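ARCHIVE CARD
CATEGORY: sequence design from structure
SOURCE FIELD: tokenized fold
FIELD CONTENT:
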């Protein structure tokens, strides 16, 4: 049983986890705006440079299968703290990599170490916070992830423009080290709020339990598809703006950070949005905003409309994704660590498939058509999940 937290302690612990999420999300997205520069530095195509994203996502997704049960067994706070320390080392290895092959290896290790941070933090929140308050608490926690995504893209673009692609990785290494110290100092309170379950931690048994839940299979399928359809094209937003509108990578990366600003709009307005729209309304509205955002980036003849389009995309994504997250924390409460980790695994494996597919499509038909093609599919996904969530709620109420 988890111990009830005082509001002040809860806020403090959520802030610490959010700082960890900032670093993890920054590490995920730091190479997005760097792809043209990395292609030039290492003499490869855009698809070749995009491997720095795909190897991170593959490692991130696959390691979830181990981290979820491990967090249940050893304690989620402890595993997050160890993963943050390891991420300080792997980020430093990225900064020191002299060749593309070694950079890919370092990015794979970084994906593996970062993989525990956000999913197990979410699972910790699921253990420590009652369901009726959980969506709002998750929204506050997400501010770290949102800001990290934006900071990673922006810093990556600036560093690429000035020829210092290694710098963002060095900055991330220092950040991870500092947050590790802070989490370690709060380890007693964090472990008390969500204690380990010594009898748990069997990978296949817990994964099998989660996958036997029909609603869990729906959530995992939807979040995988979301990863494919959104983060495949998003990885090429900066490249599209740079190549199509001749804006610098610094400006392009800055524009793409407005995805994070859209996420912050959701985080700060979540109390009103959740109350007025409910989960089905958030999912449907999120799909509609992502449709408008992707079409705005892909088809507008003017670069200066892209900021608004990125803002809409970010708001729409977090409306849908936060709804999926709250369901993920409750889809298998007896194996919450494994459940949320499978959720994250599905999401990032979807991103891997999306980035690889979009990279090939961009080289064949161009970035505008590729990004635009994903837009109506995201709308369909949001509407489908809204319908499924409403139906699931009816079944629960019977």
């Amino acid at each position: 049983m988890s111990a009830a937290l005082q509001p002040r302690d809860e806020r403090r612990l959520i802030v610490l986890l959010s700082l960890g999420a900032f670093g993890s999300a920054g590490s995920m997205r730091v190479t997005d705006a760097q792809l043209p520069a990395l292609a030039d530095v290492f003499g490869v195509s855009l698809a070749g440079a995009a491997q720095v994203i795909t190897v991170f996502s593959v490692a991130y997704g696959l390691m979830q299968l181990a981290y979820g049960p491990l967090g249940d067994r050893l304690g989620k706070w402890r595993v997050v703290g160890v993963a943050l320390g390891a991420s300080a080392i792997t980020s430093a290895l990225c900064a020191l990599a002299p060749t593309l092959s070694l950079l890919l290896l370092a990015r794979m290790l970084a994906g593996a170490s970062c993989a525990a941070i956000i999913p197990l933090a979410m699972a910790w929140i699921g253990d420590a916070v009652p369901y009726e308050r959980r969506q709002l608490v998750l929204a506050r926690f997400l501010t770290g992830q949102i800001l990290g995504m934006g900071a990673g893209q922006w810093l990556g673009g600036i560093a690429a423009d000035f020829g210092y692609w290694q710098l963002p990785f060095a900055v991330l290494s220092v950040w991870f080290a500092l947050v590790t110290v802070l989490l370690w100092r709060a380890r007693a309170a964090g472990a008390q709020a969500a204690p380990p379950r010594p009898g748990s931690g069997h990978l296949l048994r817990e994964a099998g339990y989660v996958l036997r839940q029909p609603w869990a299979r729906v959530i995992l399928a939807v979040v995988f598809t979301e990863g494919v359809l959104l983060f495949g094209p998003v990885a090429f937003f900066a490249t599209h703006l740079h190549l199509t509108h001749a804006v610098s990578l610094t400006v392009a990366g800055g524009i793409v950070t407005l995805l994070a600003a859209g996420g912050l709009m959701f985080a700060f307005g979540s109390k009103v949005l959740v109350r007025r729209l409910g989960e089905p309304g958030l999912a449907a509205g999120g799909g509609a905003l992502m449709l408008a955002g992707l079409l705005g980036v892909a088809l507008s003849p003017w670069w200066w409309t892209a900021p608004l389009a990125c803002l809409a995309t970010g708001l729409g994504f977090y409306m849908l994704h936060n709804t999926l997250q709250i369901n993920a924390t409750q889809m298998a409460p007896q194996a919450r660590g494994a459940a949320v980790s499978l959720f994250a695994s599905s999401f990032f494996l979807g991103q891997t498939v999306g980035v690889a597919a979009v990279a090939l499509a961009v080289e064949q038909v161009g970035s505008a058509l590729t990004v635009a093609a994903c837009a109506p599919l995201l709308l369909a996904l949001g509407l489908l999940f809204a319908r499924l969530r409403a139906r699931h709620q009816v079944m629960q109420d019977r």
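CARD ANNOTATION: The first helix runs from residue 7 to 29. The CA atoms of residues 210 and 332 lie 6 Å apart.
SHELF: design records, drawer C
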